[in-house]
Amino acid sequence: MTTDIYAAGAVCWRRVGDDIMVLLIHRTQHRDISFPKGKVDPGETLPQTAVREVKEETGISVSLGINLGVISYPLSKKHEKHVYYWAAEVTEKAVQRSTFTPNKEVDALIWTPLEEVRSELSYRQDKEIFDVFAKLFTRKAHDTFSVILLRHARAELQGTEFPIDSERPLSELGEAQAQEIVPTIAAFGRHKIRSSTALRCRQTVEPLSTYLDRKVVYSEDLSQEAWETGEFDLRPLIGTIVCKKKNVVVCSHGPVLPEVARELVLATGSLPGSYVAESTALPVSGFSIFHFSRNNPSAGILSIETYPRLLR
User: Fold this and answer.
1) Measuring CA to CA, how many Å separate 237 from each of 212, 215, 220, 230?
2) How many domains does the chain have?
3) At which of 89, 123, 138 does a domain end?
4) Does residue 55 register a pLDDT over 60?
5) Mean per-residue pLDDT for 40-54?
6) How far is Cα 18 from Cα 32, in angstroms, rounded to an integer?
7) Do residues 212 and 65 both lie within one domain?
8) Cα-to-chain-centroid distance, residue 63
């Protein structure tokens, strides 16, 4: 029986004039060249790990973009390792603020031209991850923005104390869930926040709004009441989100989120399919991240990551 070990990292890329440079690291003890990565700490999600490890190994702060997949390999007869990777753009400001100094883990940061990366990497598995990134670059789909569909956290049940559905507050568990989702969503960068007007949605995004220092824009069209009466029109809202090509969190309700996803499909020319419905079949406080090309959103949905609730 094997014991699985989980890790996460990033393919960090940077614009230098008209060229793209990719960050590789030379590990001191291993004497190899790879991407920054490391094992998950207790209580972390994989995106949190990726951002922390990049910071620890390179001194550079990043936000995650599109998921590039996972590589798996045996460490021994009893241990198998799974490493998840994301693309992550490094801004010039982040480079200038880097705190890197050579140390016992990493002794060199190597900014490498895109066409030379594959030959510099020491391991086949890393080359496979880079191939995914390179294919995205060929399609001009490496530079992405994300739309996160978030279902509100656990609310108090409707009843004598809370007779009006839209005024039900979060339960104690729901308040904890609203706090718990913040670091994982924040790993994907600063997002604008759109929310249903229902109290349980407003309270769900409040900790995220505080952490990201973003004001929340509320919309009746995202409410369950509007969905139940059929008096909602999501198309202008989603059209605006896609046209602006900026990261956005949309917090709404179980019955409404499939409609939001449907409009995302239509606004980006994506292929319909069961994968879209599956991504919005979310438990309370669960969320799915839809990635789109910033250069060409009409290329459709590039990938979807789904994170079920972190606290039950």
Assistant:
1) 21, 17, 11, 16
2) 2
3) 138
4) yes
5) 96
6) 29
7) no
8) 9
Has residue 312 been placed in a domain?
A: no
Distance CA 137, CA 84 (A): 19
Q: Indicate the residue among 138, 172, 197 that finishes a domain.
A: 138
Strand partners, 147: 248, 290
CATH code at position 107: 3.90.79.10
Residue-wise pLDDT tens digits, 262-274: 999 999 999 999 9
User: For residue 181, which of 283, 261, 286, 251 has the smallest C-alpha distance?
Assistant: 286
d(CA 182, CA 150): 11
Q: What span, in angstroms and rounded, lies between the C-alpha atoms of 297 and 259? A: 19
Q: Which residue range(s) make up the domain with 125?
A: 3-138
114, 170: one domain: no
Virtual torsion, Cα 290, 296, 302, 304, nearest 10 deg:
0
Strands 216-219 and 192-196: parallel
- The per-residue pLDDT for range 151-175, each reduced to its tens digit, is 999 999 988 888 999 999 999 999 9
Structure tokens at 181: 């989702």
Using CA of residue 112, residue 90, residue 72, residue 74, what is the dihedral sign? positive
Mean pLDDT (whole number) for 189-215 = 97
The span from the CA of 24 to the CA of 165, in Å, is 52
Q: What is the pTM of this model?
A: 0.95
Q: Do 14 and 122 sit in the same domain of this protein?
A: yes
